[in-house]
Amino acid sequence: MTKLQGGFLRSLYRRNDVPPESVRLCFCVLLFVSFPLGVSASCVDVQGQKRQGGLIHGKVAAGSSVTLDGSALQVLPGGEFVAGFGRDAPANATLSVHSAETRCTQKLTIASREYNIQRVEGVPQKTVTPSKEHQARIAREQALVRAAKGQRLQRPDLLQEALAGFSWPAVGPISGVYGSQRIYNGKPGSPHYGVDVALPTGSPVLAPSAGVVTLAERDLFFSGGTVILDHGYGLSSSFLHMSKVSVAVGQELQRGDLIGEIGATGRATGPHLDWRMSWREERIDPQLLVPPMPQAASVSAAASP
Q1: What is the rounded CA–CA span in Å between residue 243 and residue 21?
Q2: Residue 7 structural domain
Q3: Residue 108 has pLDDT above 60, yes or no
Q4: CA–CA separation, 81 vs 176, rounded Å?
């Protein structure tokens, strides 16, 4: 309640000709106006891609708390926050901001996307389903990846650079895109959560933005040579199928630093880089965070058989 509203109520109490019931009614009306229920259309200016696979960010007053669909977001000391939407995110999300001066909620409309779905029949079952021995190995490696992505490094400088834009970690023909999926013998396989860049084995893979290495493995079952780079506050990049890993866990990289070399390790049919990104547990689309692939690479892609 504002000082003006409070003064108005006190003046009503001092008047003998105003019944107490009227004062209480007036108080309720003023309280409703001061703390409106419902949804604000302009709670905060949200930047980024409000679509499946997209990353959004905004800025609120320092010390504010922000939630997305009831889940608390980390807010940087300067008030910045970031959030991402997975491949199959629902059409609506609710963003709420609370501070000493502000309490507001707004709805976000999340654009849907169409993905490339391929059906493949007649595939040998042993190719689709790993053996029990391999499944145990896969479970151990998945635990390593979850731990690497779950560190939530609080480095405002890293996240702020990332939000300023990413660079391509490799420049070449795009051979696979985010969200695509194959259905083997009627059983859906895991969607593809990255963007593939096809280049010869040994081609360099460079850091697309600054970060700290949280995983550096040379031979994971599915992804082969794999590096995870933490950009801070739950945002990370993963680089898969590399023939050489040139970094170590704990190493801090700047944009353009060498991460490794392209290869065909793990479950890969040919040399390429599979670049993936995550925000917390959500897989987001790296291609939404970089400029278009340079024209020379597009020409190479068109010329490829």
Answers
A1: 79
A2: 3-34
A3: yes
A4: 30
